[in-house]
Amino acid sequence: MSIHRAFWLALWAGLWAPQGALGAEDATPAAAPPAETGEAVPDPAGRGYSIGETGLALGGYVTGEAEDLEGDDYYSELEGNLFLFYEPSRYFRLFTDFEFEPDNVALERSYVDLTRNDALKVRVGKFLTPIGRWNQAHIEPLTWTTSEPLMIETVFDDTVSGASLNGTVFPSGGALSYSVYASLVDAIQVDADENFAERSTGARLEWASLEGWTAGLSYYASKPYDVSRWHHLGGADLLWQPNRRFELSVELLAGEGSRAAGATYAGYVQVAVETWRSLYLTARHEELAYPGAPTARFLTTGLVWAPRPWLRIKADYTSANEAGALGEPGARASLSLLY
Amino acid sequence: MTLRSLGVALVLGFAAAAAAQDGRRIAVIVHPERRAELSVDQLAQIYLRRKQYWEDGDVIVPLNLASGLAPRVAFSHQVLRQTEARLADYWNRRYFDGVMPPATLASTAAVRRYVATDRRAIGYVPAAEVDATVRVILVLER
Fold first, then answer.
1. Which of A31, A83, A174 has its CB closest to that of B103?
2. Is A232 buried (19+), middle (13-18) or exposed (0-12) by CB count in 10 A?
3. Which of A32, A47, A168 sits opposite B95 (nearest CB)?
4. Among residues A132, A306, A319, A332, which one has the least CA distance to residue A215?
5. Interval B107-128: pLDDT, tens
6. What are the CA-CA distances from residue A239 to residues A151, A226, A242, A321 (Å)?
């Protein structure tokens, strides 16, 4: 069976299966049900599959996408990611994320978490650069648009091969998390055109309120391969979810990223509003001022249908000003599911 | 009605009202040996799996009830302050980072039985269902 056919069959079966059987209404399902009771609720769809009592689990997501961009031919692609979880004890966790494209398999992330307590965790390996929110959860089943903001793609390297110290403390009303990280080795399996920093380091501080909003500050320093001095980039981000039908997110970056010398200013504002039964209207405005270039502006508007927690179907259109060609304006659609 | 029968009726009425009140309250329970004290905010962080360790270094095993059960709906609303749909988005994001939601058990009796056997566990049940096998560390009024 081809991967395309398997994908559509799985989707069809998922959509028509009884909701209880898939646990589609079960928003907080079991991670490791205590089997001793014999009354654990089975894992629902979209949260991976545990392999017995081994501590090993598999999961991931699949995305089919189509693009009709201005000045380009129609293009479609099917890609998938495989997650591998291994948690032999609560103090040690291995996580690996492989990306499968039609002609390539890439190691997206692979790291080990060693945890002492909530306030101190060491992460070693290849992990997403902790800048803002989007870069840390940028996959199709989690985002509201088919394309990511250009600033996420073009200002800094999206992964770090190294180590980080992370932790969370719990003042009243929320959680305060920190992350301090540094690259220690050359980038692990990253395309040359995606890895500009020979070395990088940075920090992030995030406040997650129990009242539905999250705010973060990020700092990223990088030394590109062809430059002797370090670049410094700062960022701020906000997520506001006052109720289940509305979400506002904002990210701002200023400084020098790993991919260009000179001051870069970038930011986006995005809203998602539920209009009717899991059908969301989305809009994102982005501005990006690269060194020596006019400010590029983009507006992406579209619809997202999320009939199940593990499924998102999206269609949107991106328009741009004359300086925004790099953002590839045009129409896009995607269908993605977690498994 | 004699004074005596009026007194009996009053006592029974108060008892019935207390029982109904107990049915509406949710008790957060732990193993009898667990000596932790928790606020509602800390409880929320445990069930969001941001807080994963007890003060003595043991891991926390939070137990949820199956979706749709009345205590779970009340707990999500009162403690997590989120709807089930919003929580689904939250857990999708955590799943991408390799963090899974709390284990889910099918009934309040199963939660109570498990908590009674595992000193790392924490769960919630209607207050009326609490017995001596577990310790109540917080009571939520519905």
1. A31
2. middle
3. A47
4. A132
5. 999 999 999 999 999 999 999 9
6. 17, 36, 10, 27
- Asked if A199 and A228 count as a contact pair (C-beta separation under 8 A), the reply is no
Tell if the CB–CB gap between A136 and B39 is shorter than 8 Å. Answer: no
pLDDT tens readout for residues B7-23:
656 555 555 555 555 55
**Structure tokens belonging to residue A238:** 């906000």
Whether residues B84 and A27 touch (CB distance < 8 A) is answered with yes
Rounded to two decimals, the ipTM of the complex is: 0.83
CB A7 within 8 A of CB A337: no
Per-residue pLDDT, A29? 33
> What is the pTM (predicted TM-score) of this model?
0.84
Cα distances (Å, whole numbers) of residue A320 to A144, A295, A314:
19, 11, 20
Locate the chain B residue with the closest alpha carbon to A310. Answer: B92
Cβ–Cβ of B45/A40 closer than 8 Å?
no
B85, B98, B105 ranked by CB distance to A244: nearest:
B85
Q: Are strands A159-169 and A174-183 parallel, antiparallel or unpaired?
A: antiparallel
Closest CA to A175 of A202, A220, A211: A211
Whether residues A29 and B42 touch (CB distance < 8 A) is answered with no
Q: Which of A299, A318, A305 is nearest to A275 (CA)?
A: A305
Are residues A89 and A69 in contact, defined by beta-carbon separation less than 8 angstroms?
no
Of the candidates B85, B119, B123, B117, the one whose C-alpha atom is nearest the C-alpha of residue B104 is: B123
Query: What single-letter amino acid sits at A52?
Result: G
Taking the C-alpha atoms of residue A197 and residue A95, their distance in angstroms, rounded to an integer, is: 24
Q: ∠ at Cα B110 (A37, B104), nearest 5°?
A: 80
Residue in B closest to A93 by C-alpha: B98
Please give the single-letter amino acid code of residue A30: A
